[in-house]
Design a protein that fits this description.
The structure is a homodimer of 202-residue chains. The first copy, chain A, has 202 residues and is mainly α. Helices cover 69% and strands 0% of the residues of chain A. Chain A binds a DNA duplex (30 and 30 nucleotides) through helix 1, helix 2 and helix 3.
Chain lengths: 202, 202
DNA sequence: ATAATAATCGGACTACGGTCCGTTTAGTCC
DNA sequence: GGACTAAACGGACCGTAGTCCGATTATTAT
């Protein structure tokens, strides 16, 4: 018998997850990916998901809280990868390059990210209350603010970061590309112009 | 008998509105204003509105198409006033002032507008499909684009206008003020900084 | 006035996100 | 193994936006 639990057991974290709960979470994530592959993220309803996964509707909501929460869970891997790239990865996205170059790279990567995971990202932030309190969104904004300060931005970096973040909103970007027919390259070029002008004061 | 109809009759416009339809539209608008005055725009549901106005639910939707359409109708007066102010009114908002000053004034007025009609504006653009194809929003964006060109903006004025428009999104502005506790003055100052930097290239 | 017609009306109906609560079951302690 | 407890389960239920279609009514021509 071991007195010391060998791995994530009862050490201060949430009291672990019951086995049936874990099993159902996997089932649900699998079913969600299937449905999205078949019909797209927009067509995924919580009822269909529950049916496909063979669980009750209540279970879906207990696991993910809301439709947006489910979408965030589905995105969490690529989201975490993105975060670690701009926080710890190689320049110009990661630390080591000048702030302006990092800002440009950040926008470019973010636009590419939205082009790839667009519908999911949109669905993930389409929550009724507060699309702006999603931890990921707050992190991006603080990151932009940090880079602005690093570049000597004197005029209210918080609000400048907010404006720049608004430019990268998935909903807007997807509309620009899918409805207006603009190319991602053009969006990226415009982002470069924008941040350059904002950083270099008038 | 008169061969020529004396007023808005059958002259090319929509074939006029039946009297009961007009009466019901007035009833509905009145009831909507009452409900909003009592409980706020967010608490206005189409069922309650129909009940208060004493009409069927179908009538509400035939008149306004959707909840967002109703909100747009409620806003149309102040919206039209705003539009004519920045298109034909006195400087610095209207023509006569330099483009940059007009841009600054536009943002300031828009922020004030959102502070006053915020919930309505948010509800009006919260339509499922395409919040960006609302005629009013497209007009603002083209106006900003026009002012940018006037100031000699060389770098993709259309997308720069899109970014600036994103900054003025009612949802974001309301969140900044009501949740984050920022003051409208601070938003206005930041807008001034932003457009100044964007217009004066690097 | 009457009939014909086309628009309007009303409310039952659907789809969806989200909640609630009585029932079941996994983990634990004896 | 058996009893106990807290968590998980499931699906009935709710509120809401939006649709549909048979019944109604304003309007116009005769």
């Amino acid at each position: 018998m071991s007195f010391i639990p060998l791995l994530p057991g009862s050490l201060s974290g949430p009291p672990a997850e019951r086995s049936d709960a874990a099993r159902n979470r996997e089932r649900l994530l699998g079913a969600a990916r299937e449905l999205i592959a078949e019909c797209g993220a927009d067509a995924l309803t919580m009822d269909r998901l529950a049916e496909r996964a063979g669980v009750g509707k209540g279970t879906v909501f207990r696991r993910f809280g809301s439709r947006a929460g489910l979408m965030m869970t589905l995105l969490s891997d690529s989201e975490a990868a993105f975060q670690s790239r701009f926080m710890f990865g190689p320049p110009p996205l990661g630390p080591g390059a000048p702030g302006l170059e990092r800002l440009v790279a950040f926008g470019a990567e973010r636009i590419a990210y939205v082009m790839e995971h667009g519908d999911l990202a949109r669905a993930a932030e389409a929550s009724a209350h507060s699309r702006y309190e999603v931890p990921a969104a707050m992190l991006w904004q603080r990151h932009i603010e940090h880079l602005l300060r690093e570049e000597g931005m004197d005029a209210d970096p918080l609000l400048m970061a907010m404006s720049l973040t608004a430019t990268l909103d998935p909903d807007r970007l997807l509309h620009a590309v899918r409805v207006q027919g603009l190319t991602p390259e053009r969006l990226t070029d415009s982002w470069r112009e924008l941040v350059t002008r904002v950083v270099r004061g008038p």
